[in-house]
Design a protein that fits this description.
Radius of gyration of chain A: 37 Å
Radius of gyration of chain B: 21 Å
Shape of chain A: elongated
Number of strands of chain A: 6
Order of helices and strands of chain A: HEEHHHHHEHHHEHHEE
Helix content of chain B: 40-55%
Oligomer: heterodimer
Distance between the termini of chain B: 54 Å
Largest sheet of chain A: 3 strands, antiparallel
Number of domains of chain B: 2
CATH class of the largest domain in chain B: Mainly Alpha
Shape of chain B: globular
Order of helices and strands of chain B: HHHEEHHEHHEEHH
Largest sheet of chain B: 3 strands, antiparallel
CATH superfamily of the largest domain in chain B: Winged helix-like DNA-binding domain superfamily/Winged helix DNA-binding domain
Structural class of chain B: alpha+beta
Structural class of chain A: mainly alpha
Largest interface: A-B, 46 and 61 residues
Number of strands of chain B: 5
Strand order of the largest sheet of chain B: 3-5-4
Distance between the termini of chain A: 130 Å
CATH topology of the largest domain in chain B: Arc Repressor Mutant, subunit A
Number of helices of chain B: 9
Amino acid sequence: MSFRPKVPERDFMSEAVHLEAEQRPFEVSIEAFTGPVDLLCLLVESKQIDVSRISLTDIVRAYGQYLTRRADVPLPQVADFFHKAATLLLYKVLALFPVSVADIGGNEPEDDSVFLDDVERRMELFAPFRVAREILILRKERQERCLMRPAMDAGPVHYDIGDVYGLASLWWDIAQRRRNSGSRTHEIEESWIGVPDPVPEERLIETKVEELTDVVLREGEFSVSSLLKGSIPFGVLLVTLLALLEMCRMGRIRIHQEEVFGDIVAYGCSDSFPGSQNS
Amino acid sequence: MDALTLSREARILEAILFVASDPVSEESVSDVTGFSRNTVENTFKELREHYEKGHGIVLRRVAGGWKLFSSDDVFEVVSRFQKDSGRIRLSKAAFESLAVVAYNQPVTRGEIEEIRGVRCDRVIETLLATGLVRIAGRKRGSGSPLLYRTTDLFLREFGLDSIAELPTLAELGEMARHRTADDDALE
């Protein structure tokens, strides 16, 4: 009599399935698509999938987990994945720009040209699906009578490059609205209170210095608060303060503040303004 | 059954159904509540029976989960309240293509065109845009064409718990033959 050692039973089938799953190339699995990354790129390129609905972060994270699991992925394959991921990122960036109607291609005529060969065979092949179509139409009509809480929408778009996508959309919307409204340049400038004119800053300060020089010549001294009466734009305030500092540096005025947070008074220097009232 | 007689489990599931916008699966409820799958299944059935008795809402299984719907008899009035129900409108061609996808999935565009006998690229685009169909990879072989499948939204829109609820292709073929025979008899 011979005794055979008892070998624990192995489930070769499940092991093989597991091994096959482990060896399988990386596949993206998202809401609207399951398949390899290159196919995803192709679908994004042909606009069959909206790139802004894809989370590149999730895809890269999933790939990271895949790499950890496999540990033996050749470097060229890894490089290829990142090349594809970069391509998707590029499409995301391109999606920041407005799309022209021509790009959408929505006006193509429906091309339902019937193939006229072996009609009978086709009719036979198609007959069950015509019944299925009617069943679906009936089911849909019946289902439409059952109202429900609306399902969640497709969810937020994924801004893999921060909120630039949202900002870009907003910017293009504003630009389009302005273009449509036909606003003239001066109207736009008026509405942008607080933003300095598009003149070189030095030139602005020089002009302000000349303006303040006239005030000193006329009045001898002036309080800064008198220059900043009312609600003046931030840009004007900034230029005024810089002009005052510049005049101090040039020795044209002296400034004095009696108390902390009190008013600042500027006096014309006698060397610079011999004829001024306060010299 | 009076509302007050609902079990605690049933009241919890009722509240989950109330806040959910998508169909609620037994699995997800079991995970959240800690109730066994058996308890959850029985409780959903308890709730369904509860709503069948004189309520304005009904509980039905769609797309692998449970969902509350308005009952058919109140549709006319309630639809005036829910004006924009976001329903998907489809052409006959779209219904046909959808039927072909539903019965042959995963299926390529070429296969759909072979059955329908017409080009289907625009129709498939429409179905993809509505979310009733999704791309499910590529078929191995020459040209590696894309494969299409129906989605959970398809099940929801057609009030199906699963594709298996539709009649089989053999049954459809039988129905089509009966129809042809009836048409011939009329002629």
